[in-house]
Amino acid sequence: MPESKSKFLIPTIGAAVVLTGGIAAYMYFKGGPAGDSAGALGSAKVVPSSALMATYITTDPQAWAKLQQFGTPEAQQLVAKGLESFNKDMLKDSNISYEKDIKPWAGSVMIAVLPPNAVKPAQFNTPAASNKPIKLQSEPNILLVVGIKDKIAALNFGNKLKAQKGIKFQESDYKGEKITETTDKGKPTYSVVLNNSQLILAPEKQAVEQAIDTFKGQPSFATKEGASNILSKGVDVKNTLAQIYIPDYAGMVQQLAAANPQGTQLPPQTLKQLQQVKSMVAGVGVDDAGLRVKAIANLDPQLNKFQYQNTPAKIVGQFPTDTFALVSGQGISRTWSTVLEQSKDYPEFNQAVAQVRQQLKAVANLDLDKEVLGWMDGEFALGTIPSNQGILASVGFGGALLFDTSDRKTAEATLSKLDDLVKKQSLNVAQRDISGKKITEWQIPQQGALLAHGWLDEDTLFVALGSPIADAIATNKSQSLDNSDTFKAVTGSLQKPNGGYFYVDMDKTMTLVNRFAVAQPVPPEASAVLSSIRGLGVTATSPDKSTSQVEMLLALKPKTAK
Fold it and tell me: Each residue of 501-513: pLDDT tens digit?
């Protein structure tokens, strides 16, 4: 959001409230919106149907209070300090307090993004002598809908705001509603109170007029095709803090790209890709595990070519418990085929793929599609594991790739070609036995193994960076990752079955970060926040070809944790 449009809320919140009527009217309408997520549909009824997207932020104190159960004392102090600074910056040069004057009456907020105003050619008839650049596109309009949950408190705040120095008010009538133009430090903003229960604010008068038209009966965001369904269903998260609604994903991207001063018209093939997603809704909430985000995309099954596969999630158990980051999934070969099919209209991409194919064939005599990616048809995972031994001593960690395949013969032939290629270089190729498993290593003289590969069972191949990582994967003596407390806490509540995981153990990750940040340490503020995070877990599911879901959990440490 442009800075000029993000700072208009406080100076104008009370201006329109002052002009809404007498004390009797406020007493009559004192109930007002409750400020919870159920009010999203009510707010959407005064947002024009042309809105590209809308975000609904709840002010339900119980939802926000849930966040206070997390975080180290340092992080809690940092948040408190940040809120204090925010209040001082937004309300400086006034005697207004957010806690005393605004919080008691302001309900939940919907922030809608409207299309840019149509630009008339006459607007660009500038004097010939002027060298000022002409901006042909305009920025999207921002419209705020603020619920008024206590009219008396709102009236008191409005009167207090009206007495502030340097703020000018001017009224105008539009279809029987009074629009207030509030000028603060030379910047005008516009507001109106509808039905004594909703305060509409915008930096452009036209946006407020459109909201009034909607209130008077014009089509609203709540009735817009694609929006009504996602507004009523929302996303199932506990203690909802915010929800985001995008009823026409491709249309939104197209209009925002056109409004960008540096933007160009989207190529037809790009627009076709975007049209696979019809609408999207996302929610942010707080539960006992931490901060949870869920997003649901409604897809066009005729355009969606990707064939989703659930993973058995068995491959995670092949990694040791000290693995601090992991990405897993299913069916690389099928995904590659889908990417090629959907990218056939992209000359640049096809040219790049052709170059990779040619170079791989020339250097290693390998076919990219058949011999490298073709046999990767099962579950796969990439994990990073700490180690201070051998060639990894200087970096402190190594990595391992695991693949389940139904075509072991092709995989072995590919590895054999790579081994032969390495032998022609300055590396040694040798074999050793690890817990009964025959492992092949690429060794650097006097330094140890750079890379190792071998089979854990009949259909599971591993490729490890460094001998210590190969030993850890092949022996698997320690507890496996899927049984570790941190992995369970971070991923255990994510939806199952799923297409794989993205997982980060923040404590182990920060240990390595701090090791390499001696010269330039992590700032105390960032360290305080990161030390409150236990880990990050992300997964995706697809119940059918018309729905795709993503879930992310930022697992937080309890407030009592040190």
Answer: 999 999 999 888 8
